[in-house]
């Protein structure tokens, strides 16, 4: 049996074990994937355990995604840009850190809402870890520009300045959001506004969005946020956060096994687990 897992704190509610075990079964792989509670201060021991027990792969979630980078042998370019690792591949004893959140988000956005991001104008709301996690992957698609706006404007300026200028990521003041949204092809909410239990809260006035444009939210609880519901009413194409979770797992599966991920089966089993 090939061993896999996810570490985090808290970890009880993780849907990764049901999703990845379903994927292994679907593809006929003799793998076992379990969730492990790793408290702060135990992370280095946990990674030593991965080496000692010969795990093939590990997912890493909050609060360990940043610190774990110091215990690995190699970090991918995307993970360096995101400043976080969520997927580890054990390549014959060499631990390589990747970030599949950003590329998983982009694959989901392309599959489910907008296949071609090249030349598009993207507005991104928020400047926290979730924003950093997807910016590099978005920039790989060659959009015309990515405009970052945040309630605390200095954080948006700092975040955008941390990327190379040729990625065309810049920040705008919150007061310019209305006009920026009117002109945008894709508006992405990476803030926590609208997340359960505050499900009626809105990050921006949805009437600023252009009909036909894409409204995307990284939040997947609720599956369709108030922001997306109202965007849909004015004629936007909407994209929720569940796909990001499914595709970050799909990429992890593909990096570990070299086989294509059974995305539909993975999505179905996660959706079943919500009821
Ligand atoms: P994460 O890692 O999930 O991105 P985070 O680093 O705490 O979490 O970032 C949360 C983001 O949501 C930030 O951009 C935050 O804005 P500030 O930097 O101004 O705090 C944003 N956010 C949270 N509550 C908000 C609110 N009520 N209105 C606007 N933005 C909000």
From TrEMBL:
Residues annotated as domain Shikimate dehydrogenase substrate binding N-terminal: 6-88
Domain SDH C-terminal: 241-271
Domain Quinate/shikimate 5-dehydrogenase/glutamyl-tRNA reductase stretches: 112-192
Residues that bind NADP(+): 77, 126-130, 150-155, 218, 241
Entry GO terms, CC: cytosol
InterPro entries per the UniProt record, alphabetical: Aminoacid_DH-like_N_sf (IPR046346), NAD(P)-bd_dom_sf (IPR036291), SDH_C (IPR041121), Shikimate_DH (IPR011342), Shikimate_DH-bd_N (IPR013708), Shikimate_DH_fam (IPR022893), Shikm_DH/Glu-tRNA_Rdtase (IPR006151)
Enzyme Commission (EC) number: 1.1.1.25
Entry-linked Pfam families: SDH_C, Shikimate_DH, Shikimate_dh_N
GO terms (BP aspect): amino acid biosynthetic process; aromatic amino acid family biosynthetic process; chorismate biosynthetic process; shikimate metabolic process
Pathway noted in the entry: Metabolic intermediate biosynthesis; chorismate biosynthesis; chorismate from D-erythrose 4-phosphate and phosphoenolpyruvate: step 4/7
Binding site for shikimate: 14-16, 61, 86, 101, 220, 248
GO function term, MF aspect, one: NADP binding
Active site: 65
SUPFAM superfamilies hit by this protein: Aminoacid dehydrogenase-like, N-terminal domain (SSF53223), NAD(P)-binding Rossmann-fold domains (SSF51735)
Keywords linked to the UniProt accession: Amino-acid biosynthesis, Aromatic amino acid biosynthesis, NADP, Oxidoreductase
Reactions the enzyme catalyzes: shikimate + NADP(+) = 3-dehydroshikimate + NADPH + H(+)
Family statement: Belongs to the shikimate dehydrogenase family.
General function of this protein: Involved in the biosynthesis of the chorismate, which leads to the biosynthesis of aromatic amino acids. Catalyzes the reversible NADPH linked reduction of 3-dehydroshikimate (DHSA) to yield shikimate (SA).
Assembly and interaction partners: Homodimer.
HAMAP family: Shikimate_DH_AroE
PANTHER family according to UniProt: BIFUNCTIONAL 3-DEHYDROQUINATE DEHYDRATASE_SHIKIMATE DEHYDROGENASE, CHLOROPLASTIC (PTHR21089:SF1), SHIKIMATE DEHYDROGENASE (PTHR21089)
Name of the featured protein: Shikimate dehydrogenase (NADP(+))
Organism: Cohnella luojiensis
Gene field: aroE
